Every structure is written in structure tokens, then in C-alpha cells.
Predict the structure of 2-(1,2-epoxy-1,2-dihydrophenyl)acetyl-CoA isomerase.
Amino acid sequence: MTFKNILFTVDSGVARIVLNRPEKLNSLDAETMVELHEAMSRIEADRQLRVLVLGGAGRAFCAGQDLADPAMQEVDGKLPDIGNLVERYFKPLVMRLQSLQVPTVAAVQGLAAGGGASIALACDLVVAAQSAYFLQAFSRIGLTPDTGSTWFLTRSVGTVRALGLAMLAEKLPAATAAEWGLIWQVVEDSKFAGTIDALAAQIAQMPTKALVRTRQLMHAATSHSLEQQLSMEASFIREMGWSADYREGLQAFSQKRPPNFTGE
């Protein structure tokens, strides 16, 4: 497949997907979603990768669903089945991001709205430029939230703030998002690109499997009892305790040198 709406590159263990419809604020139509899923398939098949960075070209991260998409148009007086679009494209993308075999970073500049905000929040770490903002725009056009936004928001900022953001559809500045715990970090615009590059390079040198298992532990913690979580932690640390990266970590510690993790 030749990509027209995204840029996909791989370098030094870092996969990058850049939504590349800047004239449309990187909104998502069916063609773009197909390309995104193809890129995800390539990432899933490449065992040499260590991290995924997801970003957007131009002045937005992603404006969510493209309302001009033919699949969103009324036909013969009948409105489209929007839920089908969510089930077909958005839900699988979120699930793939949440279960990817490498850590994920969302690099958010400008607007992250609707499903676009949710795709960012589906990543492990969200780093935003100072000028970025998040918007739950659904109520502005008479819709309810989708793409997992109610799941991500309630777990990160609580039900009260999640309701306010979703019902009132007000802009949430990046600094406030960081203060509330919705995202990992906010960075000055002039330092944004360099920060993302440095973070990607850092994660690409870390013990990949251990980081992914850590993600799984954190996700499970909200629904597990303490006993269940302790058992899951024991299972994962047993697995990691037999890994090549743990052996390397021990040797590096004893030899007083930086570890050379391979992700195995």
C-alpha cells in the first residue's frame, strides 16, 4: 500500500506515524483509517521496533472524524450508521494501540478533538506542546462521546471533570490537562520536536517487554482486587526475571555501566 494520508517511517527502532492531512486538521476519513491500520500491521510484524510515536502534520494533531467523509453523508434522506464506523475503524485502532508490543507516545500539537483526542489518550505517554489543547466536541453536533473517551477521561480525571469536558465541549489547554493528570507532559512549543525525539530515543534503548508488561499491569489494576494484582505482578516479574534484558541489567549494574537492552 502507498500511503497518501499518513507518513510512516522507521529509524533506529523508532516507528513514526504522522497524520498528514493538514488542510483538514488531520481529520480521519475511511481512507486514512485504512492506512493507519496498515501501518499498525507493519509495526506489529516488525520485531525490531522498540517504540511508536504518533503525531500530526501542521497545526493540529487530529480533529477527529472527518464530517465530509462520504461515509458520513446522508443518502436518500437516511443518516449514516456512525456506530458502524466506530466499530469498524476507531475501536480496533484503540485496541491495537493499547495492546501493541512496543510502548507508544502521542506527540500532540495544536488541536486534539473528538476521536482524535481519544487516539492520543490511547497511547502510553501523551506529550503536548504548550499551545495544544484537547476538545470533546461531540455535544456540539448532537453526539455522544466515542473512541473510548469516556473510559480514558473517567480513569484519568474522574467522573466530575469528565462530565464537564464532555457535556460543555470546552477547550482543555495542555497545561491544565497535565495538571489534571490527563497527559504526561507539556513542553514549550520551541522545544517540542526535540523533546519528542529525545523521548523516543530514550524509550528505544529501554527494556521493551518490561515496559509493555508494565502497561498491562497498570491497566489491570483498576479492575483487580489487591490479591489479583499481586498475583499478576508476581507472574510478570517471574517472566521478566528470566529475560535477556534482566540478565543484561544485572551485569550492567555490577559492572557500573549503562545497560544495552535489546528488548528481549
The chain has a mean pLDDT of 96. The chain has ten helices and ten strands.
